Amino acid sequence: MAKQDLLLELREGRPLALRQQTALTLQLSFPAILAQVSSIVMQYIDAAMVGQLGRDASAAIGLVASSTWLFGGLCRALVVGFSVMVAQRIGAGEEKDARNLVKQGLCAGFAFGLLIAAVGGAIASGLPHWLHADSSICPGASSYFLIFALSLPFVQLNRLAVGLLQAGGNMRTPSILLVLMCGLDVVFNSLLIFPTRQLGAFTLPGADLGVTGAALGTALSEMVVAIILCICLLRSPMLGLRKGERLRFVPVQLRRAVRLGAPVAIEQAVMSSAQVVTTRIIAPLGTVAIAANSFAVTAEALCYMPGYGVQSAAVTLIGQSVGAKRKDLVTRLGWVTVLLGMGVMLVASALMYALAPWIIGMLSPDRQVVLLGTQVLRIVVFSEPLFGASIVTAGVFQGAGSSLLSSVLNFVSMWGVRLTLAVEIMGRHSNVILVDGEGLVVDAIKRVDLEKSSVRPVLPGLPYSPPPAAAGHLDLSYSSPQMVADAVVTARFPRRCLPFRTACRR
C-alpha cells in the first residue's frame, strides 16, 4: 500500500497491522535519511576540498565547525515546534489551520534567522581567539564563520521548509532538493576555493578564495535550495497557499511553537556547546589535533545522521497519531521507529569502523591527520547504536508534544559524563592505556614516544611499565591490597582514633 494511503488510514482511525506500521515507517524514514545524510555531506565536501589546501586550512574550518553546529542546531527549535503542530493538525483533519501554521512558521523562522545571524556576525572575529587557536588559522576561521552566520536566515528557511513538508508526509521533495544542494556545493566550491586551473583540454575558472570560498559556496547553495523549497512548500496540495486564506498571527500558536521548540533549542545548545568546549580543550594541542578531531566528528555525523532521518519519520508518525487520537498506535510506532534507528546506526557504525582510514583519507592527504583521525573515529563509533536509540526516542517525545525529558537526559550525558571524562583524560598527567595479557600495550589515548619520554614510552607493542612512585606515595606495582587499604584509610581519616580506622579496614 502506498505511503499516502497508509497515512490516510492512520488519520481516519482505521486499524494498521504491524506489517503496515513497519512499511509506513520505512517509507517515511529512507527519504528522510537521505535528506539528513545529504546535509552532513556538504560539511564533508567542504572539509575534503579544503583539505587539499593543507593542514592549516583544514584546521581553520575544524576550529569553528562545532560553533556552526551550535548555531545550526538553534535553527531546529522552530522547525520542531511548527513541524509537530502541523503534523498534529493534519492528523486531526484541520488542514486550514495547518496551512496558517506554515505561513506563521516561515515568517517567524526568517525573523529568528536574522536574529541569530546578527549574534553570529558579532562574535565572528573574536571566536577563534577565544578557542585558543594558533594565530595562523584565526583569519580563515573568522572569515568562514562570518559568512556562515550571514547565511543563517536561509539556513533557517531551508530547515523549516524541509520539516514542514515532512510533517505533511512529503519526504521525497526535500530529499531530492537536498541532494541537489550537495551538487551545487561541489560546483560553487570548485569555482570559489581554487585558482583557475587546467583540466585536460579545459580551463576551469577559479576565484582562489581558499577557506572563504568554501564558506561562500556552501552559503550560495543553501540560499538557492531554500528559495526552491519555500516555493514547493507554498505550492503544496495540502499545505500551500489557498485563494482567500490570509495569514493570521495567532499568539497562542506562536507561544506553543516556542514552548515545543525551546527544549530542543536547549538540547542543541547543550550538545553543540559541549563540542565547542571540547574544541577549546583540543585547540592547544596544535593543528594536527584540531584537524583530526574535526574530520572524525564530521565523518561520525555520516553515521548518526541516518538516526535523525528516522527521527523525522517518528515526529511525523507520532504527531499525526496524536492528532488523530490514535493512542493505540503511538506506543507501537514509537518502538518500531526506535528499533529501526538502532538497526540502521548499527550497520552504519560497522561500516564506519571498517572504512575509517579511507574516509579520513578522503578528507586530508596529511598522514598524521589521517592516523589520528582514524583512531578517534574508531573509538566513537562504538556508541552509535545507543546514540540512535536516544535520537529517535527524542523524536517520539517531540511528536507527542513533550521534548523536555530528552533534553534533560542529553544535558546529563554531555556535561555530566562526556566533558567530565574529557577534562580528566586530557589532564597533563592522565591517560587511558589498554594492556594485553602479556603486559604489552595495545593502545593508549595519549601515545608517548621517545621524544616525549625516553624513560617510559607508551606505544602499541611495547611492554607496559607503571609510573614510578612519587616520594611519600605507594608503589602500586609492589603494594598488597592491605597496604593500599591502610593508605586510603589513613589519608581519609588522618586524625581519627585507631579503633575507628581499624573498623574501617575491616
Write out the strand line-up for the largest beta sheet, numbering strands in chain order. Answer: 1-2
Radius of gyration: 26 Å
Number of helical elements: 18
Helix content: over 70%
Profile the largest sheet.
2 strands, antiparallel
Strand content: under 5%
Structure class: mainly alpha
Structure in words:
- With 506 residues, this protein is mostly helical.
- The protein has 3 domains: 3-425, no CATH class; 431-465, no CATH class; 476-506, no CATH class.
- 72% of the residues lie in helices and 4% in strands.
- It is built from 18 helices and 4 strands.
- The chain has helices at 3-11, 18-51, 55-74, 76-91, 95-123, 127-130, 138-150, 152-167, 172-192, 211-234, 251-282, 287-323, 327-363, 367-380, 384-399, 404-425, 481-492, 498-505; strands spanning 195-199, 202-207, 433-435, 441-444.
- A two-stranded antiparallel sheet has the order 1-2. Strands 3-4 form a two-stranded antiparallel ribbon.
- Helix 5 packs antiparallel against helix 7 and helix 12 (287-323) runs parallel beside helix 15 (384-399).
- It is globular and about 80 Å long.
- The termini are far apart.
- 47% of the residues are buried.
